[in-house]
Structures are given as structure tokens and as C-alpha cells.
């Protein structure tokens, strides 16, 4: 008897719970979300070291809230978001400035290759004849050729472009040995050095429209592929040594791909994909035919002729009317800096302008050496290495961001120096292993144990945290602000002063933020005496002070002054209050 077939019925279905459809966000929530998105993008760029972009995104977030409807004065949610963002943003900015997160701006220059891109290069027959004659005696480990294109560029360099060649010849001696050694190490032609001349004029602060930087003009993506880091501390694309190592590897890879140095150079300029497509489209695996057929980008069409022209002139400058530069400068000293150290302190210790250190260390984006690299190599002027090593030993590692030095003048004593910097004589004596009554030799250097701020602030150098600030909301009757420096500037220029609180046009909501921008004069920090108000929207001035100020608010009688009348119209004016131990 066949077994019965049992049909298993499916269990009764039960209705699945339906997820509730979220209610659409109202206009206020959408505005807050947009502001938070801008703030988050700003924080990401801040942590990545792009302070300019971060500052723009922070300003957009604040402006969005200020321009919103119904407005921060009418909606408590918008007001709370505004207060929170302002507190965090200004905390970031003060934190950045206080701990060296803003180096004096690099003197960036446009790249020469871009300035030549739209030029035409007519040939001077006399130059053409001279080049034909000279090229026979020029030795090169690359196939230097001459034609109307090359001769035209040489003609230009002898006329309107003469200043560029003068700069190339002067700067070349700074990097020639280093580049030559790296090319030899990689088994590459020595004359590839002239590629850097066309790319940047040997200027580590050259920058292209595509944001490529350094003497070899690396973009971010290619730089990362070849091991060049960019973070909040350094941009190694601007490091002449590391970027040369990366450029040598890049050129070696490109030559292995194309088997032709001119095509490899073209690929270095416009990318290997661009050159490969030009070769495939024209059927010619050399540079000159795709150029003739305009299969390459405009800039790349002139790239190789410019390189050849520079190489021909640089190999025999006198033949083309240029003064040869025979100076062979000594190489800079190298020291390993294991803890964050302020460049201004280093400059004082070795007796050189801080600009010398910036020029020797173009990859640094901050006033301080990196906190995340205990093996960071700092370049110093030739002969300054031993002086630095001996002098830095007297500065405790944890104080190398804060402490400074003083050059003793005639008649000064430990007590008078201490008084000048508002320090105790005992502290100055102890820092220099002296007695209070010790005689000081004119011209000697005293270590100044300047206050180092809070330990929380110091840790922030490593953790990149956001410091919370306190704010005072200006109320009716508050008509004057007294700004008192947390401590005087070493030059004694930071004095207390008072001014009326700023007013603004009716349409502007005032948002005051305090920034301090030291003025550099001969390597010494001085203080800007003026402060200006910053208002949101179309009123884009802002407070500038040499040192972080303390803020006290006076309430004179009668209580209905100008600000008292305007405060009802404009709302609260936020004033950050910095406790004394937070001053830089």
C-alpha cells in the first residue's frame, strides 16, 4: 500500500509590520542638516590640512543659518544650532592659530609651462643658424634634436623669456647634486633635470591651475601613488628630495611603458592615457608626428620643445648670451626632530631668519614640525646643525612649541630680562642654569620659559580635538568692551585698550570672532594694535588682534547707550572669552 502523500500547508500568513514612513523634514530641519553637512565637510578639510577650504565651508554654514527663514532670532532650534556651530568653528580656528596650524603663506607662483601654453614661437634665422652650429658640440644623454619648434623657443628665451632662464640657472645649482644622484641611482639620463626647470623653474612653491605643486609638479593622486604624503603637517610634493625620488620612479615607469623619452615626457605632462590614445589615433609611436597632427593637448605640444630649448641653453649659457652660474653652494645640514618644535624657536637658536627655514623646508605647512613623525628631517642652513643640536638640548622637549630665546643687550640682568617678558627672575635663572645675580654677556642668548598654556591645549596638537570656548552674549546696556592681553608681547607692545562695541547695518547680524595674526618683522613677532568687527552676510570685516584677548564687558550708566538701542534690532553679539592660561 503506497504511503499517503501528505500535503503540508503553508502556515497562515501574518501581516508584516510596515515601517512607518518618516515624516518629511520641515524647512528648519533641512537648514540644520545642510549646515551640519557643511560643518562636517569643513572639519574633514581641516583635519586634512586644507585650512582655506575648511574656513570657506565654515563660513557657508554660518551664513546659511543667518540667512535662513524664520531666522535664528525667531526659532530656538536655529538659534541653538547657530550657537553650537559658532562655538565649535571659532574653537577650531583659535586652536589652529594657537598651535601653529597656520604658517605664513607660501609665496606661490604660477608654473612656467602654463604661462608658455598659449604662446607662439617664431624663429629668428640667426638663432636657428647658431643652434645648428652649437648642437654639434653639445653632449647629452638624451636625444636633443633641433627644429623650427625648438629654435623658436630658444629665440623666445633670448628675448621676452630671458628672465625665466636667468632664474633657472640660479636655482638649478641648489638642486643639481641631489637630482643628479637620484637619476644615477635610478639609472636615468642626467639631463632629465631640465624637466623640472620647465615644470617649475626649480621653484618648490610653483603651483598649477590643477593644483599640482613642487619642483616636479605632482598632483595629489599621482603623489599618493608614488608615496608623497599630504596631511595637516606636511605636503611632501613640495619636498625637493622626496618629490625628486618620486619623479625619478614616475619617469622610469613611463619610459618602460612607451620606450621613447619624448613620449614619456609628454605622458608626464598630460598623463599616460592621453599619450597612448594619441599614439593609437595617429599610428605614430613618437612625439613629433602626434604633435604635428594636434593629437596632443596644447600645453603638451610645447612641452618637449621647451624642455629641449632649456637643456640646450643651460648646457652652454654663454653661447646664448647668459651668464653661467658656477657657484656650488654647500648642502644644508640635516637634523632629526623627534617632537613638535616651532620654526621660530629654531631660527632664534641658530641665529638665522625664519624665512631661511621655510625656504629650506618647503613641505612644512605649519609653524611647527610634525607631531606625528618622530623621525622628521629638518633642513638647516649649512653649518647650523651643530649649533642647533647644542642649543635645543637646553629646551625641554615638551616646551619646544612655547619657549623662545632672548639676545642679551648691554646692561641687561636676569631680573631685567625677566621683567621685560613678565616672567619671574627665578624661572629665567633656572631655565638657563644661572643665579639671579649672574652677569650676562652681551650677545649671549637666554632661554625664555614662556607659559605653555593648558596641558589640554598641548595634547590637542596630537589629537586634533576641538576646544570648547565660553561666550558672552552682549545685552542691552553693554556699550564698551575692554580687551586686555593675557600677557604682554615680548616686545611689550600688547597693552590693554578699550573701544566701543561695534555696530552694523540693520540687515547684518553681528558675529564677532577674535583672531590673532602676529606680524613678522625680521623674525620677531610684533602685535597688531587694531581690532575690527566682523559681521556676517555682506559685512565681511573681522576682529584682528596680535594676541588672544581677554574680554570684559562694562555696563556704564545710563544703561541705554547706542548698543542698548541697537541690540533689540540686531540680537545678541557673541564674544568669545579666553581664560588667561589659554593665551598662546
Give a topology summary:
Blueprint: H1 27-47, H2 51-66, H3 76-98, E1 109-110, H4 112-115, H5 125-134, H6 148-158, H7 162-186, H8 193-200, E2 206-207, H9 220-225, H10 240-258, H11 261-270, H12 272-282, H13 288-292, H14 298-315, E3 333-337, H15 343-350, H16 354-360, E4 376-380, H17 385-392, E5 404-407, H18 414-420, H19 425-431, E6 445-448, H20 455-463, E7 470-473, E8 480-485, E9 497-500, E10 519-521, E11 524-526, E12 549-554, H21 562-570, E13 574-577
Helix pairs in contact: 1-2, 1-3, 2-3, 6-14, 7-10, 8-14, 10-11, 11-12, 11-14, 15-16, 18-19
Fill in the CATH topology of the domain at 109-262 and 298-320: Lysozyme
Largest sheet: 3 strands, antiparallel
Report the end-to-end length measured between terminal Cα atoms.
98 Å
Q: What is the number of beta strands?
A: 13
CATH class of the domain at 109-262 and 298-320: Mainly Alpha
Mean pLDDT: 74
Oligomer: single chain
The CATH architecture category of the domain at 109-262 and 298-320 equals Orthogonal Bundle
Class based on secondary structure composition and strand pairing: mainly alpha
* Estimated radius of gyration: 31 Å
Kindly state the percentage of residues in helix: 40-55%
Distinct helical segment count:
21
Structure description:
A hairpin with a 2-residue loop joins strand 10 and strand 11. The protein has 584 residues and is mainly α. It is built from 21 helices and 13 strands. Helix 7 packs across helix 10, helix 10 packs across helix 11 and helix 11 crosses helix 14. The protein is 41% helix and 9% strand. Among the domains are: 72 residues, Methane Monooxygenase Hydroxylase, Chain G, domain 1, CATH 1.20.58; 177 residues, Lysozyme, CATH 1.10.530; 114 residues, no CATH class.
